[in-house]
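User: Can you write out an input/output pair for a complex, sequences first and structure second?

Assistant: Here is one pair. Inputs:
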Amino acid sequence: EAGVTQFPSHSVIEKGQTVTLRCDPISGHDNLYWYRRVMGKEIKFLLHFVKESKQDESGMPNNRFLAERTGGTYSTLKVQPAELEDSGVYFCASSQAVRDTGELFFGEGSRLTVL
Amino acid sequence: SQKIEQNSEALNIQEGKTATLTCNYTNYSPAYLQWYRQDPGRGPVFLLLIRENEKEKRKERLKVTFDTTLKQSLFHITASQPADSATYLCALENSNSGYALNFGKGTSLLVTP
């Protein structure tokens, strides 16, 4: 069974440019999460989809970040325009059930560097 | 505010010894607590979940305790091996925010032969 896959693994862009990160969750997982880790800090929650609906987007830093999950399958996270402080590793995770075990399956992350 | 605190300093131990990592939390009333392992350049991998009504849980060489009075979890690796070297993350659900998991910064463990 394929795990959570993320693309690209690494992206280097200049301040002001746009980047779109993609996440393919494990097949059948209704819950999809985006997290971010900036250097020296903990992994921080960004938002949570249940199927195609945003369940919780309280962690999104600002309106430069836009997440979508069309058809309840893969998800994209767009940063437009990117700022220096957006640099970090963006992780996607998926799970089958909320609050049953709560176990999350993570992708390998997309490292974003904004110059 | 809610906090999850893990030993910020790296833990260095000799192969064969028991590693003990600590997770303390404030302003959470978690139904469960989870531990993850993260290797450099990789995503976190789930290890164990312990529920609020469980004092202790074991899985092979791993043992987790959960004291909701002390607001603390201890994570033990017995008979440690160099392959156990990684960063270990403690995670709690944020009941204020749709039950998404919040993570501590993690403790880096280095097991030397």
